[in-house]
């Protein structure tokens, strides 16, 4: 898998072969960052980070910082190797924890963009906004990736501004009402 644009463009990452690990395809990443247009200087939170590719794409395109939370230790070890090997220690923090526990350590923080790619069909699209509210974590934009066949019900206080479908994947763009 390669970084598609920016200062890290073309760099290859090794993605561990783990059950449930499903990195966001290049086509979807490119589409997302085309929609966002400019992430320069943004603070990014990458949830259910897997390979860390979304944080890396954002950093490559000028994001000021990124935090990736992933539960599977082999995946976080792989991200740590990239973090040190690519000299991103100052910009990128990798947390090995469940998303719910990781969010508890970030209570009260604000992010410009939160990206979440939870396991499909597991109701995380409903739970995640609730967890953010519970821990007083705010954001300008929450982008959630979900299976295209799923029609999520958003919790009170959150509004889906738009959804974009890419094959079997849909990106939902949410914000607080």
Automatic annotation (TrEMBL):
Keyword line? Methyltransferase, Transferase
Query: What are the EC numbers?
Result: 2.1.1.171
- Superkingdom is Bacteria
Which enzyme class, named as a word? transferase
Q: Which Pfam families match?
A: Cons_hypoth95
> Which InterPro entries does the UniProt record give?
DNA_methylase_N6_adenine_CS, RNA_MeTrfase_RsmD, SAM-dependent_MTases_sf
The protein, known as: 16S rRNA (Guanine(966)-N(2))-methyltransferase RsmD
Taxonomic lineage from the root: Bacteria, Pseudomonadati, Pseudomonadota, Candidatius Mariprofundia, Mariprofundales
Which gene holds the coding sequence for this protein?
rsmD
């Amino acid at each position: 898998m390669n970084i598609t644009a920016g200062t890290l463009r073309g760099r290859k990452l090794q993605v561990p072969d783990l059950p449930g690990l499903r990195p966001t395809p290049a086509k979807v990443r490119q589409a997302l960052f085309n929609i966002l247009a400019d992430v320069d200087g943004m603070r990014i939170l990458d949830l259910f980070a897997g390979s860390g590719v979304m944080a890396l794409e954002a950093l490559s395109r000028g994001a000021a910082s990124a935090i990736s939370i992933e539960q599977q230790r082999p995946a976080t070890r792989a991200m740590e190797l990239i973090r040190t090997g690519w000299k991103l220690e100052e910009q990128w923090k990798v947390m090995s924890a469940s998303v719910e526990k990781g969010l508890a350590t970030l209570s009260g923080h604000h992010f410009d963009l939160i990206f979440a790619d939870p396991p499909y069909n597991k109701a995380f699209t409903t739970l995640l906004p609730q967890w953010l509210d519970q821990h007083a974590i705010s954001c300008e934009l929450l982008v959630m990736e979900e299976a295209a066949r799923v029609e999520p019900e958003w919790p009170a206080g959150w509004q889906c501004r738009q959804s974009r479908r890419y094959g079997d994947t849909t990106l939902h763009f949410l914000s607080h009402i």
